[in-house]
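Note to self: keep these together.
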Amino acid sequence: MSSLLTSTCLLGCASGKQPQRPDTVASTTTTPAMADRNGRSSTSNADYRPSITRSPFQVVSALLASDDLDPYTAQATKPADVSEGLIAEVEAAIEQSHQRELGIESQLPAQTSDYHRPFNSAQTPENFRDLTEAEMLAVALANSPVLRPLGVQVLANPEAVTTTYDPQIAATDPFFGPQAALSEFDSRLSLTANAQNNDRVFNNTIVGGNAQELTQDLATVNAGLQKRTLSGATIQLGANHLYDNNNRTGNLFQNYWETQWEAGVRQPLLQGAGRNFNLIAGPNAQPGFNFSNGIVIARLNVKVTEADFEIEVRDFVRDLYATYWQLQQQYAVYQSVREAEDLAYRTWQAVLARRNASVLGGEANKEAQARARYYSFLRQRQTALGGESGQGGLYVVERRLRMLMGIAIVDGQLLRPVDDASTARFAFDFDGLVGRAMDQRTELTRQSLRVRQQELKMLAAKNFLLPQLDLIGRYRMRGFGDDLTGEGSRFSSAYNDLTSLDHQEWEFGVEMGVAAGRRQAKAAVRNALLQLNREQTVLAEQQRSVRHEVADAHAEVASSFAALEATLAQVDAARDRLAASQAQYEADKIQIEFLLDAQEELLRAETQLASDLSRYALSLVNIGTATGSLLNDLGIFISNSGCGSHPVYAGT
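Structure:
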């Protein structure tokens, strides 16, 4: 892949001359019988020279070019790029001063007098950079952290913009992402440690535990581990330690240790039970909350986001190709108009020569007619370059392609497509295209994921129709002693007493609950069923729409090729007519109107040919778009990493 090169673009001169043809140098030896390329005869310049109104910018440019120059009467003697460069330096200095006043540090490189400006219709295309389809794709995908499909306004609606970070943003959502759903099943460790010193007086010694004035040192250490399982069970493990030193007279020991180990479990048997339900809805689910904490639902949400991203990449690539072929069309139109302009100029000069020689065919009306046709083509050439009334010209489309590719909008070069549009006939099997679209169209994949989501939500919603019935179990071991550890008689050590298994406790039971009428659960099931029906209906309609798009794309290939064949024949006929008309006009057998009409017809035919070539090339791209195989056909895949999802062009 060639690198982007930078060169200086030519800046227009701020003079008051009439427009000259870019490829013409003013001659100092024109004969009285001929006109220059601006339409002025040396014998009657005043008849053709229009009045000149100079803009304030031209006046400033002229003043900067020369201190003693009268900008309204004299011509600039210094190059225009010097004056415009000085203006650029003044503008940059003013902007930097304004930023310093506001306390803003500019992040842009300092402007110099050698920076580039956008091409306009007054400039001749030059300094081209040839661009292939493969290079366009590689550069655009490498420079697109923000996808730039046509029609999306990043300034007016930035929320609608798709970036390479979007899939990973959805995947790492701390509330509704897969990791958030998995975290509900993480083991949770808890630990508390407390120490107290109590000094209390009781009016009744019984209340004080045989102590009128109680002094006590109390410490507790509790540790616990809780785990939720995919079956819906909650398992708890705990270890509790207590140290108590007090002055109660009935104590066996003045200070003692008490320790206990316990294990508990709660297992739902009906509502909330089962691996499938907990994977779909997640723990602590409630009917009607879309089960956003379910692992399966969260993963499907990420897949939907990835499908959305793939659709945006596909549309972005399609827009790249559309702009590429449109730019090639603009180059062809410009070339055709330029050739027509040259031919019209030669015709005008021939008529003007006859007029100066006072021979037949040089009448004033014929000379004016030929001159008007030349300026008409000159105007069309300017429109082909700069566009008009919302219609993009060559320079406009070239800048649009640069915007899509993510490269500098202006760098002194013009991108020029070098891959020719195909003129070979392509025939596709319609049934095969429909079958491929049903399998590969990303919109159908995305909608199928949504249908699957609603099916799972429907299954989970039915679980809430069951009554709550939980199995409860708990087992506990206790230990008591004068010290926490150590050897000796009974109760000398709390750990020894614990491991002796003399003090064991257990609990076993069931808990049941059911809401009368189960209105919320029934409403949730009904709602889930309606949403499922909706998504299935949308999927069926999308399949019909895809068949329709495939049919249109299939028919467009054949229609555009038929139009291309007809236009090729029309161009051949128009060229033959022009050659014959030129010969007959030179032999004084036809009027000039027929020659000018032949020139106009050839231009129309060649312009239509450029449009039909672009249409046919784009119709082949639309086959891949309609069937969903565009990215695979071009060798583009999406690479997912922790920092984002990136489309990569691997070539075909």
